[in-house]
Prior knowledge:
Elements: H1 5-14, E1 36-44, E2 65-67, E3 76-81, E4 87-94, E5 104-107, H2 108-114, E6 121-128, H3 136-141, E7 161-168, H4 171-180, E8 184-188, E9 191-199, H5 201-213, E10 220-223
Parallel strand pairs: 1-5, 2-4
Antiparallel strand pairs: 1-6, 2-5, 3-4, 3-6, 7-9, 7-10, 8-9
Amino acid sequence: MRLRAEAIALLALAFATPVWAAPSDDAPPVRYGKYDATGQASWYGHELAGRRTATGKRFDPDDVMIAHRTLPLESMVEVTDVDTGRTIIARVGDRGPGRPDRVADLSLGAAKLLGANRRSVAHIRLRALSPGSDRPGLILAGASAAPPVARPIALDPQGHYRVQIASFSSQARAHALARRFAARAIPAGRIWRVERAGLNADSAKALRDAAAEAGYDDARILHQD
């Protein structure tokens, strides 16, 4: 795994402090099930594996968890990548982050499910979940709430294809991403799909890979209608 420069700089401090810094004493209390906030989040991986968290457990980079200053430990949160619309369910497993410009820290496992592990910082929305709600099976699995990706299709060098890059409930975000990839934002019921059509096999693969590199791991190649 490639370590970010920021994580490397913090590594020396990790041996003298918990995985994430404790919250300030004057942090306002948060009522469970009512918290809803947006902000930036970083992620941490194997460089901190085995360190004790605020729960007393050792940090497992593959665990689907976040560090937060005030939400109850072991509670569940809905984490949404604001840029891509992907949502996961994660556990509050530690205190932090230490940086005041971060709303939370993600474990590597959470970042992977969210599709944010290829970026050093993600813009996220956090929503605390009430006990016994929001599909407990999904919470326990830590699975992505994004629709499953369709099985890859066999590409014909002579064929014509389209790439579905992402889907949004926000028209503005869909159009912004469409401009970025020279694509179109197409309405489909209550959502907007960002697609680019009229591609040969090589161009379709290149666009899909570029979208995945930008964090849109659900991008997929489809036959041209």
